[in-house]
Design goal:
The chain is of the alpha/beta class. It starts with a strand and ends with a helix. It has 3 domains: about 160 residues, FAD/NAD(P)-binding domain, CATH 3.50.50; about 90 residues, Alpha-Beta Plaits; about 80 residues. Strand 10 and strand 11 form a beta hairpin. The strands form 3 sheets. Strands 1, 2, 8, 9, 10, 11 and 17 form a 7-stranded mixed beta sheet that branches. The protein has a 7-stranded mixed beta sheet with strand order 6-5-13-14-15-12-16, sandwiched between helices. Strands 3-7-4 form a 3-stranded antiparallel beta sheet. It has 9 helices and 17 strands. Helix 1 packs parallel to helix 4, helix 5 packs across helix 6 and helix 5 packs across helix 9. The structure holds flavin-adenine dinucleotide. The site of flavin-adenine dinucleotide has 30 residues, from helix 1, strand 3, strand 16 and helix 4.
């Protein structure tokens, strides 16, 4: 019988981050991951460097300026908080060997959890016919991804055969009726990530998005290139939060760590796991996902999502104007979940009043999206 203090379900960003931050504790920990060690899903996590976390040395790119384009364009100055990326493969290569070496941590792959239930002195987790016992369970599985709106993205990592210089584009809006834009990140290794992104009720399949990416590359970047790899993702844009059930605590995306109106999650996972690790070590710390600011931002996201859902085409102009009319540091704080109350007031004041008030009133009387 395997007995632990803590059992973490899922060795994704949240599960690995939490286990890593507990390496120096006295707790006996087990991380169980469904897929094989060799079958990791590679992702590129980008964000503004607004929070000091454990994995800063893995960051690359460090952009000081991002373009937002909708016919004309506006530049977002990121010199105070650079826009950086972490390749999840570097993250795995850094953390997994450290967990393998840690005396009190077992990291087990190929372990599909089929049941979790309360036992006499904690919880029992069942996987491949084996039983694991723990006093506390953290679960990062995404149980139900049904949402009213999804962020669907498909990106190509390309290597142009000719030398091209371009500015990173956070959003290059298309003329489509959907809320649709391209995201272009030239990377340190001379490759370029070109991603087509929808905020939509429809989960666009990977195949359907290929042609538009290829057309965009041909029209805007180059005709002569190799595709190194691709990345596809669907993030539910929902303000619903999965609460802990029966003391089994949710972490990562499944706990509502995603900023629902943008899809940014990585930094929130770091803040959440920093808090949990401190709490488990008996160090006093505030849960960032229970703060007043967090609650206000979720309410605001609810209104923004309703606007995007009901007026996708107009929303593109609203978002473009948001970048045009607001101070860049205020915007970066807002997008990074750390705005001051004045930032929030400024951003709301610069929105089209009628649409915002109309949807704010509707969102008071409606269920979470
Ligand atoms: C392609 C992509 C790009 C993204 N880019 C960004 C970005 O640029 N910036 C940003 O902030 N966020 C980004 N995100 C969002 C978010 O940061 C990532 O999705 C992040 O990896 C979420 O981590 P997680 O641990 O919550 O979930 P996951 O990484 O999905 O981890 C959950 C783990 O649980 C495992 N699991 C599932 N079921 C079982 C089971 N039955 N038994 C055992 N294990 C199980 C899964 O295999 C998985 O490893 C991106 C997401 C995707 C998909």
């Amino acid at each position: 019988m395997d007995k632990y203090d803590i059992l973490i379900i899922g060795a994704g960003c949240a599960g690995l981050s939490l286990a890593y931050k507990l390496i120096d504790s006295d707790l006996k920990i087990c991380v169980l991951e469904k897929f094989a060690r060799t079958k990791r899903i590679r992702k590129t996590w980008s964000y503004w460097d607004t929070y000091k976390h454990n994995f800063i040395d893995l960051e690359s790119n460090h952009y000081e300026e991002l373009e937002i384009k909708k016919g004309e364009s506006v530049l977002l100055n990121c010199s105070n908080n650079k826009y950086v990326s972490i390749d999840s493969q570097d993250f795995d290569d850094y953390i997994i060997p450290k967990l393998d070496e840690a005396r009190k941590i077992d990291l087990i792959f190929d372990s599909d959890i089929t049941d979790v239930y309360k036992s006499s002195d904690g919880y029992c987790v069942e996987s491949n016919g084996k039983h694991f016992f723990a006093k506390k369970v953290f679960d990062s599985r995404q149980t139900d991804i049904s949402a009213s709106l999804y962020q669907v993205f498909h990106g190509y990592f390309i290597k142009p055969k000719n030398n091209i210089k371009l500015k990173p584009k956070l959003m290059d809006f298309t003329e489509q009726n959907d809320f649709h834009f391209f995201y272009v990140l030239p990377k340190d290794d001379q490759s370029i990530l070109v991603e087509s992104t929808y905020f939509s009720k429809k989960v666009y399949p990977e195949e359907e998005m290929k042609q538009e990416i290829e057309d965009y590359i041909k029209k805007n970047l180059t005709t002569d290139y190799d595709v190194i790899r691709d990345e596809y993702g669907v993030i539910p844009m929902t303000t619903k939060e999965e609460n802990s059930v029966d003391g089994i605590e949710r972490i990562g995306i499944s706990s509502g760590a995603t900023r629902s109106s943008t899809g940014y999650t990585f930094l929130n996972i770091q803040k959440q796991t920093d808090y949990l690790a401190k709490h488990l070590k008996g160090i006093k710390s505030e849960n960032p996902m229970k703060s007043f600011r967090w609650k206000i931002l979720r309410k605001m996201d609810h209104v923004l999502l309703r606007i995007i859902m009901s007026k996708p085409k107009t929303s593109k102009s609203i978002i473009y104007d948001m970048f045009k009319k607001n101070n860049t540091d205020c915007l970066i704080r807002f997008l990074s979940d750390i705005p001051t109350i004045f930032d929030i007031i400024r951003i709301i004041a610069n929105m089209p009043k009628l649409i915002f008030i109309n949807h704010a009133i509707k969102s008071i009387f409606s269920k979470k999206v």
